[in-house]
Every structure is written in C-alpha cells, then in structure tokens.
Amino acid sequence: MIREEGRRWALRAADPDFSDWDALTDWLEADPAHLDAYDAALDDDDWARRLFLEEGPEVAPVVAANDMGAEAPVVGLGGRHYPWMGALAASLLLAAGLGGYFALRPEPMTEFATAPGQRHEITLADGSQILLNGGTRIRFSPSRPREIEMKGGEILFRVHHDADHPFVVTSGNTRLVDVGTVFDVQQQAGVLDVAVAEGAVLYNARGGEIRLGAGDRLTRAGDEAVPVLAKADPAAVGGWQANVLTYDDAPLSQVVADLSRDLGVVIVVDPQVGARHFSGTLSIKGTPDAVLSRLQAIVGLTIVRNGSVWRVQPARGSSS
Length: 320
Description:
With about 325 residues, this protein is of the alpha+beta class. It has 9 helices and 20 strands. The chain has 3 domains: about 1-105, no CATH class; about 110-235, Jelly Rolls, CATH 2.60.120.1440; about 245-315, Phage tail protein beta-alpha-beta fold (3-Layer(bab) Sandwich).
C-alpha cells in the first residue's frame, strides 16, 4: 500500500546516515498520492510512538558497567534489535512534533533539460557558465549550485574557480572536480568524453583519479570501461557553441550522433559505414538539409531523407 511505502520512506529518511535522497525525490514526484502518504507518516505522532516506544516481547541483554564502548540495543518491532533505533526514534518523534515535513523532506532540485536541437545557457551567481547542448539534462540543489548532476547530453562549463567551494560534476559513478577551467563533457548511458580547454579537471571514478590539463581528453566506452587519454585542440573544445564540430579519427557513428543532438533531427547510419572514421571540421550552421549536404560531400557517402529521418549509407554504386 502507498501508506506503508510512505512510512518506510519516512523511517529511512529519519536515519542520520540516510543518503538516498534522489530515489526519495523520484518516488515523491511519481504520484501526488506518494507525497500525501509521506506527509501523513511524518505527521502521525501516534504511529511513530507505537512503532518505536512500545515494549517488545524480549528484554534487552544486560551490558556490563565497565563496557564503556558497548551500545545497548533498542528492543521493539517484534523483539528484533536495532542499535540505531534509539536515535532514529527520537529524531522521528521530534520531527513529527515540530514540523518534520520541513526537517526531513529533501530540498527540491532545480532541473534544466534541452530537447535535441535546443541550447540553453545558465549563469550562476559567481559568474560560472553552464552551456547545455541539445538533448541534455542536469539538476542541482539551489543551495549548492556548484554541485551539478549530469543525467546525459553535452555541456560546456566555464567555471569561476573557488578553492574553498570546488565545482563538481557527477555523472553516474564518475566525479569531475574543477581546478579553474573551461571544459566540455559528453555523457550518454555511461559513455563519457571529457575535453579540457583551460585549467584542469580531476576525473575520479571507482577510486582512481586522473588529472586532465588544457589540451587533454578522456574518453570511456562505458561505466566499466578503462578510460583512454588523448590530446584535444583546446581551441576546438566546445566548438558546437560556435556551430563548428571538429573530429580527429572519430567513428562516423559518433559524428551522426552529435549531429542528431545539435540539429534536433533523427539521423541513422547504415551499419556498413558506421565504423568508418572521420577527421576534419564540419560547420553545423544552417538547416539540417544544408548541414547534411556538406557532410555528404566531405565523407563521400549518400545521405537520403525519408520523411523526418535522414539515413547515411554507402555511395550509390559502392559495395561498402
């Protein structure tokens, strides 16, 4: 039942070690009834007292007076022992009596999302700029705007460095920490591309840290993949904001994915040519038809349109 789910979430959120705020927020936003159930759990003083303060059928074992480090378990809930429940019960009861909804409910997150073909610029109070490319989603806490959670897409960051308040970008199990910099991040389903134009970025994933300086690029083929380091032209980092894409031996499938995001159109690539590699610069200024005509001339392939979908395929008369 939803009421019981609300109570379980209230219990978990009252634990001082609780950290799963994202999952709680998602659950609250999934259905208005969830928020009602959560509020009811926090407001129900009688339920909290019944849950924590009734005597259980067992008696707590005696703790020797000289066991200064020992912690007496709290008994209840059918005789099960929960050493952490004493503090949890007190915190939940205090919250229920003093407006627990405001004390325990996570701070609402600010979220920005762009559709493919759209762009959006965010300027923080400290002057840092966050430029979202198409098909991008981020969120952050209003009280901690320098801690960005990137859900996917591509972003160019121009960060005002503050050693006391590092600028942090998290994406899945990856953490990027600014060291006063301009850098571009692409992320989709665990695939990651980080390129630094100025300053430095610290990449941290699964306990391993890599420092990226200006002109460095890190790519990773998936969450479990080993990151690969390469060089990038600092002047070309984030070139999409100037309607220019620059590639160095990139698979055509990546070029097509970038164009789909930048132009806001559906482009598919024939498996026969998707693994081909491309090096060069492509202007993405103009209509999708104009941009794809330029690509067709550069790569020597055929690009045909069928309704709202473009398809990149071998040149006519070609066997590959």
